[in-house]
């Protein structure tokens, strides 16, 4: 193994400088996920069966390329660090693909429309994965202590919620009233150009200011297949990943269907999604400070379980909303549960990353996060199948063929399916255990022992993630 190079660590990156990057990474992908069904299915007339098939294919492709992207990041060695070059390349590529995604020629129909949708959906998700694998890998590296990590995570989730207000709540207003109309597509293209420019500027600003730790990249480069095999043999990878997927898939359904829920289930113009999404996001932002205090008092695991339960109850309440006022009332509860998940879910994952680094002596956060991304990729498969099921059970095939009761269809899509998923997650979370907080120095790459060091008593070792004493058990 190569000898570590003695390089002094740079100063700590201010939490807000790192956190603001979440604003840039969130705007493009959330506009895509929040408007793709409205744009392609309801306005352009793409059949939901074709949509579902594309989502399944693209999720499979994305699940395969994610570990490769994370592994390449872990192996990158440049004077600018491991993560920053990928961020600087990925930002403009994602922006360009997003603009193309919302610029489908009006003459396209049939297989041509399906191919345009498939190509740019897959490219957008690939560049988004590139950005998020590298951006997410910086969190445990820049902030080794959980208290500092919790603050940085809350700040970045706050920036994400600001981005969501813009990319989800404001987007319907921009696309249907400011830059376009309810039935046209011009507004989507203009909005995508504006969002793309903002996202690139923010991500570049964050990447240039992130101070990576040189010690983390001085070890021998990890190999792909042994690293993947080590990860998939880790029980926590499966328990935390599958449980977290229940939350991720539920929110993917909500974000993709909210505009059509407002149109069909509440019987209101799409622009009213601004008010429902806005209140949910504002409550989530306000709740981050509260949930962060709960984390400090009770720990990330206990708080994570509580947030899961609150989120499940909120979807049951949203199912029975009949107008904008009752939907907003239920949305307040959705925002509270979502806020708790935002404040804790990444902390649970970071505990697993810390334990892996301590146990194996390699910092491979990029690959590990990308492997966790396998569960995130289930979002595309499940949302595609969920939308296809609306055609089977309710006759909703597209905006031109909405079936007999599209209101109930999207009530099931947005409320019933997420309730089932988060209820399963809330129960499963009770049985999940994660490692105790790893001391920052335990996760540092170890210096080679001096000659003769093996003659003395063995130095105490940090507990391994699989040890009973090193796990935070269910309480």
Topology:
Blueprint: H1 15-19, H2 21-43, H3 48-75, H4 84-101, H5 111-142, H6 146-178, H7 186-209, H8 224-232, H9 235-265, H10 273-298, H11 300-319, H12 324-360, H13 365-376, H14 378-394, H15 406-429, E1 434-435, E2 471-472
Antiparallel strand pairs: 1-2
Distance between the termini: 41 Å
Number of helices: 15
How large is the radius of gyration? 22 Å
Mean pLDDT: 81
Structural class: mainly alpha
Helical content (DSSP H or I, runs of 4+): over 70%
How many DSSP-defined strands? 2
Tell me the overall shape: globular
Largest sheet: 2 strands, antiparallel
Order of helices and strands: HHHHHHHHHHHHHHHEE
Physical arrangement of strands within the biggest beta sheet: 1-2
Strand content: under 5%
Low-confidence stretches: 1-9, 441-470
Could you characterize the architecture of this molecule?
- With 475 residues, the chain is mainly α.
- The chain is built from 15 helices and two strands.
- Strands 1-2 form a two-stranded antiparallel sheet.
- The protein is globular.
């Amino acid at each position: 193994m190569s000898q570590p190079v003695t390089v002094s660590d740079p100063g700590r990156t201010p939490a807000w400088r790192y956190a603001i990057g979440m604003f840039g990474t969130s705007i493009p992908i959330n506009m895509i996920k929040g408007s793709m069904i409205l744009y392609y299915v309801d306005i352009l007339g793409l059949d939901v069966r074709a949509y579902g098939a594309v989502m399944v294919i693209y999720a499979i492709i994305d699940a395969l390329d994610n570990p490769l992207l994370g592994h390449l990041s872990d192996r990158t060695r440049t004077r600018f660090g491991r993560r920053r070059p990928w961020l600087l390349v990925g930002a403009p590529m994602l922006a360009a693909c997003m603009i193309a995604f919302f610029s489908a020629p009006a003459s396209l129909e049939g297989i041509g429309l399906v191919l345009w949708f498939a190509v740019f959906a897959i490219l957008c998700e690939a560049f988004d994965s590139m950005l998020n694998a590298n951006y997410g890998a910086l969190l445990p590296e820049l902030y080794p202590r959980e208290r500092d990590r919790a603050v940085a995570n809350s700040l970045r989730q706050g920036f994400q919620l600001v981005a969501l207000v813009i990319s989800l709540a404001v987007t319907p207003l921009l696309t249907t009233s400011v830059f376009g109309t309810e039935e046209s597509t011009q507004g989507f293209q203009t909005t995508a150009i504006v969002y793309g420019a903002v996202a690139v500027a923010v991500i570049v600003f964050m990447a240039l200011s992130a101070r990576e730790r040189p010690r983390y990249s001085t070890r021998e480069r990890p190999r792909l297949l042994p690293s993947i095999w080590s990860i998939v043999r880790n029980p926590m990878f499966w328990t935390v990943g599958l449980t977290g997927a229940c939350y991720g898939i539920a929110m993917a359904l909500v974000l993709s269907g909210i505009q059509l829920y407002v149109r069909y289930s509440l019987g209101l113009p799409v622009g009213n999604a601004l008010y429902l999404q806005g209140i949910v996001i504002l409550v989530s932002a306000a709740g981050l400070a509260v949930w962060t205090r709960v984390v400090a008092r009770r720990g990330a695991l206990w708080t994570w379980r509580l947030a899961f339960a609150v989120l499940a109850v909120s979807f049951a309440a949203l199912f029975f909303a009949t107008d904008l006022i009752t939907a907003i009332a239920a949305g307040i509860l959705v925002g509270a549960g979502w806020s708790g998940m935002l404040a804790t879910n990444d902390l649970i994952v970071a505990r697993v990353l810390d334990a892996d680094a301590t146990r194996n002596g390699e910092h491979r956060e990029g690959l590990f996060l990308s492997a966790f991304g396998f569960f995130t990729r289930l979002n595309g498969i499940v949302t595609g199948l969920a939308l296809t099921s609306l055609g089977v059970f309710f006759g909703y095939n597209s905006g031109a063929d909405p079936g007999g009761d599209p209101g109930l269809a999207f009530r099931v899509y947005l409320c019933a399916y997420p309730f089932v998923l988060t209820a399963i997650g809330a129960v499963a979370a009770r049985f999940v255990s994660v490692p105790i907080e790893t001391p920052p120095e335990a996760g540092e790459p170890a210096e080679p022992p001096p000659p003769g060091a093996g003659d003395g008593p063995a130095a105490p070792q940090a507990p391994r993630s699989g040890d009973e004493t090193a796990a935070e058990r269910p309480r």
